Structures are given as structure tokens and as C-alpha cells.
Amino acid sequence: VVELGMPTRSVVTTCAYCGVGCSFKAEMRGDQLVRMVPFKDGGANEGHSCVKGRFAFGYATHPDRQMNPMIRESITDEWQVVDWDTAITYTARKFLEIQGKYGASAIGGITSSRTTNEEVYVVQKMVRAAFGNNNVDTCARVCHSPTGYGLKQTFGTSAGTQDFKSVAEADVIMVIGANPTDGHPVFASRMKKRIREGAKLIVVDPRRIDLVRSPHIEAQYHLPLQPGTNVAMVNAFAHVVVTEGLVDQDFVAARCEGYEEWAQFIARPENSPEATESITGVPAADVRAAARLYATGGNAAIYYGLGVTEHSQGSTMVMGMANLAMATGNIGRDGVGVNPLRGQNNVQGSCDMGSFPHELSGYRHVSDEAVREVFETLWGRPILPEPGLRIPNMFDAAIDGTFRALFVQGEDIAQSDPNTKHVTAALAAMDLVVVQDLFINETAKFAHVFLPGTSFLEKDGTFTNAERRINRVRPVMAPKTGMHEWEIPCRIAQAMGYEMSYNNPSEIMDEIAAVTPTFSGVSFEKLDKLGSVQWPCNDAAPTGTPIMHVDGFVRGKGAFVPTTFVPTDERSTRKFPLILTTGRILSQYNVGAQTRRTANVAWHPEDVLEIHPHDAEVRGINDGDMVSLASRVGETTLKATISDRMPVGVVYTTFHHPVTGANVVTTENSDWATNCPEYKVTAVQVGLRTSA
Ligand code: SF4
Q1: C-alpha 52 to ligand 1 mean position (Å)
Q2: Of the residues 46, 213, 239, 330, which has the fewest C-beta atoms closer than 10 A?
């Protein structure tokens, strides 16, 4: 920490890392950020924080930050620094040329879950109104798109059901495919407090995560299932509930539909814990006991993460959890619910803002004529009724030659998306790649235009956290790049001939509120007055909605959906006998673009491969050896760490460092409904490379 003296002023803003959305006082001395102090009145964190939010802000002033726009004709050329006018004019001209030559559908954009709601909104508007298509997708495609699909099908809206505070009323906490102590530390503290007070804990995860056994905490059940078998597990839970008479009949009769058909499906013998034991690898007796605890232990809340969504049946699993919660009446009050732990600061918001190729803001399908009319009237441009391309479709179309130009907002797709070779081939095939980011990342190596973005300390706007809480992000300094990030798409659109301008982000939020029923009561003025609000915020709920589906589901009746287990195509073989699963670590954040440029990197300077002692021994691998990790799509090298946290046959790594590039080996398999990549299941071989 640089000694900067006592702060002279402070600004309340929101952490730019995970989906907990902690509020901080950024304490300043002049233009220098002296320290980040957790804000005691923060709705999500109540004065707490973790090492990322509190100490890892140095990336905002890191010398690697690019402050000037740059252009180049070819990716083999040197970058040429230009002024903003030149960069905007050049970008717009290129988009228009490509649009004219190949048609409107040949261009598109990707929005970021790290930018503000207002910045996301203007990118999707630029694509729809100026590009003239629905080829806009959010980086949530690769994390929580199955949450959006699954919760919408069952409950009627694409968001978690509870506020964080509600965990204090839970009697049974079930954590599925999430590692909150590393991924969502401040919420994990709330959860642990409740467990220490006596709430029972069920952990469903292949790894023995810290929560399973830590000081004063011991999970009642840890169910270490085989990666890729979540749906078999949730069906087995539901089978116990239905066949042992544990259904909340009153709740189901009053609030739900489709129960009879679903109950017949779930009661089939193939869904029993005994029948699925050979699939999940978890003893049937443990599954039965855990299911009984969930159904009869009082208020039962499910918290889940990417270990649920990033599978070929991610959407099915989300619906399976919703079925289970409805069958047991665990919806619509404190201490219950189905709650996604969102990875990035604004995953919820980037989805809410209409940056999906099939949905306008507020999760309304583009085929809905009445909804399109609202936007067409305000924007003065027609909106196509057909969905546009999803991110993986953009890559495939680029390789086919039909998709030629891409605007990428704050997302390093070349490092974070699966099957790196395929992604980089797609980027290399495009005529124009425009990257808006803080740093020259892996994607920018394929870019023709680089437009420098702003850090959270320079932003004015809002982030929406995992509990639908809209938090204000307030600038503590002027944009170091000389341009607000929300202005960039507006100016590109204008240069392409579409008038799009705002005086400030507050006006953008006013427009969002005007076209989005769940946001109709949101304004900067209200947020500044109340601190934050949780959507829906409208005439019916002027101060927001902490808990959803209280008196009825958003879709009317909650819908039971049969969830047949279909094994993933990705199976271990003689050549690739182990299963790789991936995740993250406390001190680092996603692809590490931010945290690797802070002192946090000292805690985790490289990605390592966790391997069970048995699997290591048969391969002659010792702790610290360098090993090769290969799948059918690629190979990388990293250091082995021998750990009995892993089950035999499963290895684990993080994806924070581009040198290791874990996604070199992950495959193109994806969720059947949303194309969310199956990061959590890759058949691999591991071999000794050299001694460390
Ligand atoms: Fe930031 Fe998440 Fe840590 Fe809170 S828990 S300080 S939001 S990284």
C-alpha cells in the first residue's frame, strides 16, 4: 500500500468484483484513492468486505492500462494511437462497410457483466438500432444463462428468489455447485453465521470445499457426486420427497401446476437414490437422508453456482431445483428459495438490460409484437422479431465467413470462453474486431480497434447484484481516458447515422425505466435516497421487492417441469481417463485481468492442477511436479498439487492466468437450452512433464 496520507473526502460506491455487490466508501486524498472502507449501511454487505474488494483496486491505476484509442488495419500491424474522433469515425465506417457488403446480420456485439447497467443498455441499443439486428449477447452466456432459462420456465422470471438477509431465517442450507467462501466471501460469512447458530448444511459438490468442514462448521451431508450428474441427484432428492409423502400438498395445490405429470415422472424407479447411485457415485442412503432433511428440516434454502449451470444439462438442473423447492413449499418467504450466486458484479444486470439475442430488457422475447412496439416507438427504428446470434453461434458463423465484425465490451473471450483454439480462429477470421477494455487482453491481440474503457472508480451508474439489488456506482475521479464508457457506443451509433445521445447515465436509467416494467420505479434519485432497491421496483412495489413469489409466481402458477437425466457426451475414456472441473480462488477474479494487476497475485501466482493422491501416484506425479493436461481439443502445462479434496478420477484447476489457459482444454459441449459451455466436465489425461 502506498502511503498517501489521510483522506480528505469519500464517495460511497460498489465493488466491481463479485455478485455480492458490497458497498464501500472510497476514501480519497485529492485524486488519489487512499483506501476502500466497507460501508456499514451497504444493503448487501452491512459493513463487511473481502480481500478483493478491499485491497484489489490497484488495477485501476496500473501502468498496463491503455489510456488512448488505437487502430490498425491488420492484426499483424503495429497499433497506431489516435484521438477519439478518429477512432470513432474509423470504427463506424468499418461497421458500415461490412454491413453494406455482407448485410446487417454480419455484425454484432458482446456486452460485459463487469460494466454498469447503463453501459450494457447502450451497447444492446447500438446493436439493435444502429447495427439493425439482434446479434447481441452477454458474457452471462458462459455462466448463468441456464439460470435465466430455468427460473423463467418454472417461476416466470430470470432471477434469484430471495435477498441475502433471508439466509438468517434458513433452517437447512443446501449449497450446490458453488464455493461461496472463495467466490462470494461476504455472503459466505452470513451463511456461516447462520450455520453456527444451528442451521443444517448439505453440500452437493465433487470437491470437499472449505464449507464442508471448517472451524465450528461441519456439513451434515457432503454428497461428492460425479461431475455431470447433477440432474440425476436432484431427481433422486425429488423422488424421495414424492414417494415418502413429504410433498407440501397445500402449497402445490394452491400455487403450482403440472404437479401430477411431474410426480408420475419423478416417482419412476429409475429416479430413485438406489437407481442413480451408480450414476452419481453417492451412496443412496446419504441421498435419502439429505433429501429428508431438506424436505422436513424447516425453512430450506438452495444456493447454487456455476457447478450447476455450466453443464450440458445446466438449464434442466435449474428447473430440477425449482421443482424441488415448489414440491416442498420452500418458496415465497424468508429463509427459503432458489438462489443463484452470481459470479460477476453485474451478471444479473447485464441479463436484465436486454443484451440477450432473444430478449429485450426485462426478459421479454423479441417475437412479442407489443413489446417491440414500445422500443420501436421510442427508438424510431424497427426491431427484428427473430432472435440474433448467441456468442458461440457468432464464432461458428465467423469461421463459416458469414459473421464479419464484432464489438466486444469488457470481456476477454479469448481467455474465458471454452475451446480457445476455436475462439481465436473465429476472431482471426473476422474483418473487424473492436475491443473496449482496460487492458490489451488476449482478445485484443485479434483486434483492429482498441477503445480504452474506464475502471469502476471512474464510472457513474448502477450494478445489480445476485439478489436483484440495484446499487449505485459513483465516480471518484474523472475518466482517465477522456471518454465515459457509456458514451462510446452512443458515438459509434451516431457516426453510423443513428441519433443516440444522453447527457448523463441518469438519463439512460430513466429510459430503461420507461421501457422496462420491472424497473419502472427506478431512478438515480430514488437510489440515492434509499441506498439501493431490489427489482421489481414499480407502482406495485415502489421501494423494491426483497423476496419474490410471495403470494403467487410471476408466471401465475409455478410450473413443474419433468427433468429427465441425460448423460453428457463428455465421458472419460481409455485415452482421457480423468474428468477435469474448473473453478476460482478467493484472491483472484475470473480471467485475472484485474486481480493479476494487484498485490493479490502474490497469493495465487499461477493456476495449479489439484489431483487426488491415488491418481497422482499411479502417474508417478509428486506434489509440485509440472504436468501436461490434455483433452481432445488442446493441451496445456501446469503444476500439480496433490489433494484429497478431489475424488479419485476428478482433477480441478482455476482459470485466472492466461499462461496456463485452462480453457485451451475445455470443449465446445454446451447446455442444450442456452449454449452455456460445459466447463465443468472435460475428459482429460494428465501426465508427468518435468520436475519443478
Ligand atoms: Fe467485492 Fe464480492 Fe468481496 Fe464483496 S464479497 S468485497 S462484492 S469481491
Answers
A1: 6
A2: 213
Neighbours of 525 (CB within 10 A): 11
Rounded Cα gap, residues 131 and 108, in angstroms: 7
Bridge-based pairing of strands 405-409 and 432-437 is: parallel
Query: Phi and psi (nearest 5°) for 110?
Result: -120, 130
DSSP 8-state symbol, 132:
-
- Among 12, 13, 14, 20, name the best residue to mutate to test ligand 1's pocket (greatest count of ligand atoms within 8 A of Cβ): 20
| Per-residue 3-state assignment (H helix, E strand, C coil) for 484-499 | CCCHHHHHHHHHCCCC
Which atom of ligand 1 is least distant from the CA of 345?
7
CB atoms within 10 A of CB 486: 25
Find the helix or strand (DSSP H, E) in which 149 lies.
helix 145-154
What residue owns the CA closest to ligand 1's atom 1? 53
Cell reading at 23 = 458497498
CA distances from 596 to 588, 599, 639, 657 (A): 7, 8, 18, 8
Cα atoms in the Cβ-side hemisphere of radius 13 Å centred on 104: 16
**Rounded to 5 degrees, what are φ and ψ at 417?**
-85, 155
Residues enclosing ligand 1, CB less than 6 A?
15, 17-18, 20-22, 45, 49-50, 52-53, 184-186
Best mutation site among 13, 50, 191 for ligand 1 pocket (most ligand atoms within 8 Å of CB): 50
User: Atom 3 (ligand 1): residue with closest C-alpha?
Assistant: 50
User: How are beta strands 432-437 and 449-452 bridged, if at all?
Assistant: parallel
pLDDT tens digits, one per residue of 570-605: 999 999 999 999 877 666 776 666 777 777 666 677
* Ligand 1 atom at minimum distance from 24 CA: 6
DSSP symbols for 495-521? HTT-----SSHHHHHHHHHHH-GGGTT
